[in-house]
Amino acid sequence: MSSSPIPAVIAVVIHEDRTLLVRRANPPDAGLWGFPGGKIEFGETVAEAVIRELLEETGIHAQARDIITTLDILVRDSSGAIERHYILIAVQCLWIAGEPVAGDDAPEARWFDLAEVDSGRLPMSADVDVIARRAHAASKLRGV
Fold it and tell me: N or C: which end of the chain has fewer CB atoms below 10 A?
């Protein structure tokens, strides 16, 4: 058990009005769909971490843009005690090149229409639908 929060990033990529998601292979959220991402390595900036994680998990090349939000993810044991505390930094990324190919700790990676994400039919990590809507709205404002 760590006594300090673990900083991590998630890459929110919107391309051709679709959202990039991966199915998580490892806890927390194993089996759930979410944004590609992972822990920030020592000495790595948020932008460097999000681009590295995105490439490792999906093969997608992108440019880090704005921070959308942060999330506190508390992982509890069977007694309810906190085992791990992740701070996820959601970063909007501009797609540059590539098609999703699952890699690293993501057995599946693919584009989803916003309606699919909003439908509630996908088993998803916390707030994926909310963050995807924000990212889509920001993309429309930018004309991207």
Answer: N
User: Can 108 be counted among the known catalytic residues?
Assistant: yes
Residue pLDDT, tens place only, 30-69? 899 999 999 999 999 999 999 999 999 999 999 999 999 9
Task: Output the domain CATH number for residue 91.
Answer: 3.90.79.10
Structural domain boundaries enclosing 100: 6-138
Q: CA 104, CA 56: separation in Å to the nearest integer?
A: 6
Distance CA 85, CA 88 (A): 10
Answer for the pair 47, 91: CB distance below 8 angstroms, yes or no.
yes
pLDDT tens per residue, range 5-39: 999 999 999 999 999 999 998 877 889 999 999 99
